[in-house]
């Protein structure tokens, strides 16, 4: 393992001129841009069938103590670099899945290596604070130069968390407390004796039967509150008790969008109307609506900016909070830093949750009334992890230095054009291509999806699915045109094998 | 900040002989043991009233973006060392609260500094894996030499998590899946169409109305499932929807224990009977019982090993799982590595959850049937954090090198004796002293508790409370007799001010 730090240092010269080795040789899409990672391989490398013998043996070893049935590939991170992920058998794949959409600036990124070696990181790792009680003296600075530097427009405060699930759940808790505060008539109103008593046995009014509304096919996490808003697949939910919370319909759009404009607008209108009806009529009053800008686990389901603006209007009209779950869509992948930046909202969401590419988690908010009216209502021991907050700051620095949001918008357009050509050539294998103008956050449906994904490693790419039929692309923000060329070529190879 | 790493390196010689500066000058309890941290101050240092001017100014700055109403003290971790925590104004306090019981081997521990600088740590920080899909090649080794090296007797597998709340909630999920599997007749039985359909709208039978039983005054976390089992204080629960889950009575013991043996045994018997009645009769069937070995947030409430053995018997007799929540009690503080080691159980708990002093989290289990019958049922993107798992491994190495569990048992006895003397001298201020033979996990009740805690910093100690009336001691495992002397002296000083 000692070679990692050294190899990371070697990669420091990220602006080195491209060499023959780093330029794609695919004839149709020759790319001229400098590679961000000069030492990246020029192409995937296949050494064995995947999984190879070393991977199989190591997986059997891990299986003794850790459930490996969801294992995709044991990874040699010391040999992974930039957009390329390596296994134990010498296979090196172009990775457009990126740890379930959570690696933004490449494996063994040299700048992050420096962040990891910094004194701030060491102290954060060895002196882990209870952030609500004993934050470090520089916590405000870490927030202001990191997490809050990229806060969505209109939101200037944050409650930090550990991962997407608890980011969403703490946002839900803030919504419930806010809702009850409005009902009571303000933050200065005291709890009743009955509330104080009933909450200790989980009964109303102290533990009220309120709800969070989410959308069909949505995914918001897998703990008990977040799972109650998750509607992706039965396997995510079966056997786990859930709250009796409402599910609104999410628009089912037809593609290509330009050929179904009127139909799609009507579908979105139908969903909005039903959403508002449910808010008004659901037996457990709705404190907030949570929605993903693009339903990411549930099948890469998109809706138009007009739909989301309509949703914002409905929530305002009905005095429920509007929570945008940017756990998977946030941090640049859609060609904007936050996917909801595409919507041109008149008023910002009440809360925006984040995780994955941020490598840390939490929810942003702007309205000071969303701070609960007393201390210790929104609290836990760690309330996040400063070590991971420092990594996010390093990621933001890389994004700014390399202009990676704009870059991803452009690379996404290039990739989308290439996929459009493939869709014209293989219409049965690339259906409902979607994500135009959404950076590299692109997906399509294919009837032989699982077979498609199964063959991907054999042509040198690591690629994931979403929903039942979708192939989802989740490249890193350092994905470039020459990577897109390799990916397009690989997709065609897979299709030819189906 | 650059000085941290250097000052950490200076502390490497932890076996250096004690100097006059590091030996307590308290006359009654002169200690002879070598200090673990040679550069620790010999005593607390008070430079200003607390909070001092720099702390106040920095807190106001942080308040702009982060809720500071639960803030105890902004901390200068670069100046904190061993058992001593420093603020921005030059105050250095003996810390027996330790980030809510979560720092085990001291601030700026030299061995952890080395771990933080290791190549494994750097790759874990910058190449964060989705552990269920793409674990690193050495993940099995990291588990086997770390988390699993200290697995409770009889439990040899782990599901890793991020913090105490999700450690408990994933354990609850495993319990629900196991319970339904038994009902169905085995792991090979398929879900019914009705289950697959109803779970998508959060309804039974797919989302069954099962429950987890917890105890009055218990604390198990603050997300929606864990909060439904938390019964500590209304402020932790108010306004948050909760599941209709049962609450069993926890024994209310009288102290000193030896004077109330029969009465306490009867009380425990009463609670066990009521627990079993609730398991049999609660309208939402009980899949598991969760209990803390010592109720830590709820007031440091103890029960006897016989009570817990009885509880284990009841759960077996009624086919419900027995989950022991060792989030606060685990990792040595009670003078055993796991507090439930004190019980001499005939069969191990079904699951044991951990976090805090482990600096990472998860649940241990032994029965392979607790792995859900299909992949992706117990899953999330990160499933923990290898960086924090490496820190836990370093902590375990320190615990072994310095024999800190045995050490804590001995120091605890010494501290308890001193407190007994104080309780005899000030019976009105030290009531119900408890934690004898439980390492340094000691508490007592005092009628002026909040006043007591408020004055502690003024005499140079950082100390926390639990429940309504309790002062709880949560020193680190490197807390030594000379620290106990200072603490005892400080407690007496506070009492004299009340």
Shape of chain A: globular
Distance between the termini of chain A: 39 Å
For the largest interface in this structure, which chains are involved and how many residues does each contribute?
A-B, 134 and 134 residues
What gyration radius of chain A follows from the Cα positions, in whole Å? 23 Å
Amount of helix of chain A = 25-40%
Number of strands of chain A: 16
What is the correct CATH architecture of the largest domain in chain A?
A: 3-Layer(aba) Sandwich
Task: Give the averaged pLDDT of chain A, no decimals.
Answer: 93
Number of domains of chain A: 2
Largest sheet of chain A: 7 strands, mixed
| Poorly predicted runs of 5 or more residues of chain A | 1-31
State the CATH topology of the largest domain in chain A: Aspartate Aminotransferase, domain 2
Q: Could you name the CATH class of the largest domain in chain A?
A: Alpha Beta
> How many helix segments of chain A?
16
Oligomer: homodimer
Strand order of the largest sheet of chain A: 3-11-10-9-6-4-5
């Amino acid at each position: 393992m000692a070679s990692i730090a050294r190899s990371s240092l070697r990669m420091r010269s990220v602006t080195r001129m491209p060499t023959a080795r780093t330029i794609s040789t695919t004839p149709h899409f020759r790319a001229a841009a400098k590679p961000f990672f000069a030492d990246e391989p020029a192409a995937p490398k296949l050494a064995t069938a995947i999984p190879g013998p070393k991977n199989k043996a190591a997986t059997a070893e891990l299986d003794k103590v850790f459930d490996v049935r969801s294992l995709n590939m044991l990874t040699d991170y010391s040999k992974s670099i930039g957009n390329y992920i390596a296994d134990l058998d010498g296979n090196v794949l172009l990775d457009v899945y990126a740890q379930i959409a959570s690696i933004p600036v490449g494996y063994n990124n040299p700048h992050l290596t420096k962040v990891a070696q910094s004194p701030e990181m060491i102290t954060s790792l060895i002196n882990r604070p209870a952030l609500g009680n004993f934050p470090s003296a520089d916590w405000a600075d870490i927030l202001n130069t990191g997490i809050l530097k990229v806060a969505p427009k209109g939101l200037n405060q944050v409650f930090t968390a550990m991962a997407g699930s608890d980011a969403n759940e703490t946002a839900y808790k803030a919504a419930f407390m806010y809702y009850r505060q409005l009902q009571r008539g303000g933050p200065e109103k005291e709890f009743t004796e009955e509330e104080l008593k009933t909450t200790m046995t989980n009964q109303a009014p102290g533990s009220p039967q309120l709800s969070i509304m989410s959308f069909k096919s949505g995914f918001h996490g897998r703990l008990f509150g977040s799972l109650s808003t998750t509607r992706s697949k039965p396997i995510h939910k079966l056997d786990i008790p859930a709250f009796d919370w409402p599910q609104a319909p999410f628009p089912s759009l037809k593609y290509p969008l330009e050929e179904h404009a009127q139909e799609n607008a009507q579908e979105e209108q139908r969903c909005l109307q039903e959403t508002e009806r449910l808010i008004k009529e659901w037996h457990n009053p709705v404190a907030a609506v949570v929605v993903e800008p693009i339903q990411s686990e549930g099948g890469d389901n998109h809706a138009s900016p007009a739909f989301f603006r309509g949703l914002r209007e409905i929530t305002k009209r009905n005095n429920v909070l509007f929570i945008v779950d940017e756990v998977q869509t946030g941090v640049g992948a859609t060609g904007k830093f936050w996917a909801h930046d595409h919507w041109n909202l008149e008023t910002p969401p009440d809360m925006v949750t984040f995780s994955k590419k941020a490598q840390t988690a939490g929810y942003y908010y702007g309205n000071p009334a969303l701070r609960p009216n007393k201390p210790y209502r929104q609290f836990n021991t760690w309330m996040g992890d400063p070590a991971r907050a420092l990594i996010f700051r390093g990621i933001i620095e890389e994004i700014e230095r390399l202009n990676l949001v704009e870059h991803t918008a452009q690379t996404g357009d290039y990739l989308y054009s290439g996929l459009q050509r493939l869709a014209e050539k293989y219409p049965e294998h690339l259906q409902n291509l979607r994500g135009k103008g959404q950076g590299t956050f692109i997906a399509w449906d294919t009837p032989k999806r699982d077979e498609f994904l199964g063959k991907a490693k054999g042509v040198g790419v690591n690629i994931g699915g979403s929903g039942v039929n979708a192939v989802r692309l989740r490249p890193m923000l350092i994905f470039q045109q020459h990577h897109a060329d390799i990916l397009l070529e690989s997709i065609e190879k897979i299709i030819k094998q189906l």
